[in-house]
Amino acid sequence: MKPIRSFLDRLEPLFTKGGRFEQLHALFEAVDTFFYSPPDLARGSPHVRDALDLKRVMIIVVFASAPAAVIGMWNVGYQANMALQSMGLLGIDGWRGALLPLLGAGYDPVSIYDCFVHGLLYFLPIYIVTMVVGLFWEVLFAGVRNHEVNEGFFVTGWLYALILPATIPLWQVAVGITFGVILGKEVFGGTGKNFLNPALVGRAFLYFAYPAQISGDAVWTAVDGFSGATALGVSALEGMAGIAGMGLTWTQAFVGQMQGSIGETSALACLLGGVFLIFTRIASWRIIVAVFAGLIIPTVLFGGADSSNPMMSMPWHWHIVLGGFAFGAVFMATDPVSAAQTNAGKWVFGLLIGFMTWLIRVINPAFPEGIMLAILFANVFAPVIDHFVIGANVRRRLKRNV
């Protein structure tokens, strides 16, 4: 790594104050600190010191979500290969069909490699557009404000790409991440100052602005002319009988072998990532446990209470493996910026997300997913929750001293 360090040191004077490329200092700093930890240290005794900087935290989150991404890409390819096989259209897949043989892959739904490569060819364009457009806005705002590029976007862009369907038009990917970065974060001052999750803000915008491309039945399988609804979409109309009619088992749903957004389908991979984040103390176990409890408790208490509502018949163990619930609970609800900060507040915050997810899914089946809107709703109330928790702590301590 010494040659890279020497090369960056030679370039640095060009980007510092008075250098030829002074206006691009934020971009240079982003590249430099991507490879090396920043040299600035807080040495005074009042400051909290830690071995991790923000970039290392972001890398850990990406690493934890990698299993969900890998299984998600395999599932996209599997669903596409199965659809192509059933429709007799093998070999007709545009530019991806031309690339598959060059990569040693084909259309065999039994082959893990074939399915993964096929899914990767759908994910990469989405991710590349997300990063190019998102980083453009990050660098632009950093240059205007004369501060470093905020590293938080590396996770925002990664998670944003994973919560989109494989067939979404790339121009909509660009519009969504633009909305998420500018109106979800930068207008509030950038990373650390936003009260909403930027990735979810971008997806919510697409959800309401272009519902046909973000939630329609035809968007979940990457094959033109093939329609396949998600399990939540079917159950909203037919309940558990609809899921049984799909031939979907709980094990398949748990592993991630079903229709859905690219990285959200595997509850197993999300839970593994959650264990890793809790072990590394990046994510709060209180929020994750509370989100699950907030969904499970009302499902158990009120399940089957209204036979006219098909979603009432869904048991709790199905709720937690369908849609993006596990992904949202582990990777979105635990966002350290937009979540509650106090320990008691994290319990309330998580319970609110879980309960709102159940409420939206069951009471308002027009939005069968639920978790996305529930997290954004809880983000708005997170400061209020912390305010009341801190106030209660102060009053309790005052009484103790009387």
Short descriptors:
mainly alpha; single chain; 2 domains
Task: Describe the protein's architecture and organization.
There is one protein chain. The chain is mostly helical. The protein folds into two domains: 12-36 and 53-228, no CATH class; 248-391, no CATH class. It is built from 18 helices and no strands. The chain is globular and about 70 Å long.
Proportion of residues in helical segments:
55-70%
Sheet/helix structural class = mainly alpha
The count of β-strands is 0
Question: How far do the termini sit from each other?
Answer: 61 Å
Strand residues, percent: under 5%
Mean pLDDT: 84
Low-confidence stretches: 42-51
Helix count, DSSP H or I runs of 4 or more residues: 18
Q: What value does the Rg take, in angstroms? A: 23 Å
- In total, the number of domains comes to 2
Shape: globular
Q: Could you give a short account of the major beta sheet?
A: none
What is the oligomeric state here? single chain
| H/E series | HHHHHHHHHHHHHHHHHH
Write a concise synopsis of the structure shown.
The protein is an all-alpha fold. It has helices at 2-15, 25-35, 54-87, 94-102, 112-145, 152-162, 170-184, 198-209, 211-215, 231-238, 240-246, 250-255, 267-279, 285-302, 316-319, 325-332, 343-363, 371-401. The longest helix has 34 residues, at 54-87.
Question: Mind sketching the topology for me?
Answer:
Elements: H1 2-15, H2 25-35, H3 54-87, H4 94-102, H5 112-145, H6 152-162, H7 170-184, H8 198-209, H9 211-215, H10 231-238, H11 240-246, H12 250-255, H13 267-279, H14 285-302, H15 316-319, H16 325-332, H17 343-363, H18 371-401
Helix pairs in contact: 3-5, 3-6, 3-13, 5-6, 5-7, 6-8, 7-8, 8-18, 10-11, 13-16, 14-17, 17-18
